[in-house]
Amino acid sequence: MQQSFFLTCWYKRSELNLRVSIFFAGATLSGAFGGLLAYGISRMDGIGGKAGWSWIFIIEGLLTLVVACVSPWFLTDFPAEAKFLTPEEREQAVARVKVDQGAMSVDTAFAWHYVADAMKDYRTYCLGLVYLSIAECFFAVSLFTPTIIAELGKWTRAESNLLSTPPFFLAFIVTISSAYFSDRIGSRGIFNVGWMLLTAVGYVILIATDPVAKPGVSYFALFLTVTGASPCISNTIAWSGGTFGPVYKRAAAMGFVFSCGNASGIISSLVYITTDKPHFYRGHGVCLAFALVAAGMSAFLVWDFKRENARRDKLYGTANSSITPESVGPEAFAEQMKVWGLEGKSPAELARLGDKHPGFRYIA
């Protein structure tokens, strides 16, 4: 969550999804190479008197520990504080974000009312529900794909790990491609709707197909579920990061959204039960429901954001919350403040507006 939040402070909203996707596509890619790695490590069965599955936990756990110990040295500061940039570069980095994000990017001192603002905004809970639903589908299919595949053709556990690689590799490609077009088009919600409906189709096929009689059809359906859910993870994170402001309201809202995603891990770990094999109706049904919830709530937010943008266009006209006396001149600035109904507001009051600023427009 911390790195995703930092990315929102460094990049324009039109650049954010691709960057977040590159960061989070590692989870998707791990699903691909994780299967290959698990297959290879499992061949170490008996070495050192340990089972193959033990070596999987030992080696992958050690790699995680090493990376975790080294990573703090590579974490960057905010643009205004980045020590690896020159003063001129820091100024440019801050300016480009402010021009794009306007009141959202205002750097103010922390105050608890920003947290309260985030918790009083119903869009925080809507995006939290979207992320929880998407993450449940993605984590469930990531955890249990080898188990599901093992029941399709009575493969061994090692062979199932190997067969789990192709769906996740395709999902990695789709995630990066989807993020690129999402940034280019300037849209988030429609991608969630489309991909989660594809995920739902995959689960419908899994429920309707006998995995023993038609293992190929069920395996194809796994491609749909993995490929559909994967791009929506980073897409929803970028959507959340581009919705809330100023900075500390965004941090609080994104923290809540991420908490919802983490909570989904509890659900996803419990929906596929051994006694349900080989059909796993219960697990597939739960994931189907969450996929439809994610698509439906994303569609609602698209409508909600477009409605609010249209309302602000009608009332206030110009959509540019980054206007300052220096950028347009004192007289033009005073006139714009009058149009927005903000005349007489102090800089602190203007900074607090964030995404409620009359010149701010949501990305739908």
Q: What is this structure's SSE topology?
A:
Elements: H1 2-10, H2 13-42, H3 52-70, H4 87-101, H5 112-120, H6 122-153, H7 157-163, H8 165-185, H9 189-208, H10 215-241, H11 247-268, H12 281-316, H13 325-328, H14 330-340, H15 347-353
Helix pairs in contact: 2-3, 2-7, 2-8, 2-10, 5-11, 6-7, 6-10, 6-11, 6-12, 8-10, 9-10, 9-12
Describe this structure in words.
The longest helix is centred in the C-terminal third of the chain and has 36 residues, at 281-316. Helix content is 74%, strand content 0%. The protein is mainly α. It starts with a helix and ends in an 11-residue tail after the last helix. The chain is elongated, with a radius of gyration of 23 Å. α2 packs antiparallel against α3 and α2 runs antiparallel to α7 (157-163). The protein has 2 domains: 2-42 and 76-313, Growth Hormone, Chain: A; 315-356, no CATH class.
Task: Explain briefly what this protein structure is.
The chain is mostly helical and 364 residues long. The chain folds into two domains: 2-42 and 76-313, Up-down Bundle (Growth Hormone, Chain: A), CATH 1.20.1250.20; 315-356, no CATH class.
Please count the beta strands (DSSP E, at least 2 residues each).
Answer: 0
In CATH, the topology of the largest domain is named Growth Hormone, Chain: A
Oligomer: single chain
| Rg of Cα set | 23 Å
Q: How would you sum up the global shape?
A: elongated
CATH top level of the largest domain?
Mainly Alpha
CATH superfamily annotation of the largest domain: MFS general substrate transporter like domains
Give the class from helix and strand content and strand pairing. Answer: mainly alpha
Domain tally: 2
Number of helices: 15
Q: How large a portion of the residues is in β-strands, by DSSP E?
A: under 5%
Which CATH-level-2 architecture of the largest domain?
Up-down Bundle
Distance between the termini: 22 Å
| Mean pLDDT across all amino acids | 87
Largest sheet: none
Which blocks of ≥5 consecutive residues have pLDDT under 50?
Answer: none
Into which percent range does the helicity of residues fall? over 70%
* Succession of helices and strands: HHHHHHHHHHHHHHH
